[in-house]
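tool=predict chain=A
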Amino acid sequence: MIAISATDRKLTASMDLRFGRSPYFLITDGNSTHFIANPYRAEEKNSSSKVVDLLRKKGITKIITGEVGPAAKLDLDENKIQLIMLTGDKVSLQHILKKMSLPR
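tool=predict ok
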């Protein structure tokens, strides 16, 4: 299962560059996709750890995002979740799925 940080709940939205503060995550298993909200985006402390735990519970094995802090990176490593970091503003979710040959 793959999660992509997203600015909105639509495939035409951009990948959110902020992992822990991303409002949504697009979740895909290679056959279907859906969105989940990030309930921890407004929290001041430990938001990235809580997001990692949420994604782990959803069975996520890879995360695609723009920026990850050192605490989040450590949590991802400890939970054996692969981190794929993309640079560039306004990269659409559709574009990412197409490049990965995943359903849109």
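DSSP finds three helices and five strands in the chain. The first strand starts at residue 2 and ends at 6.
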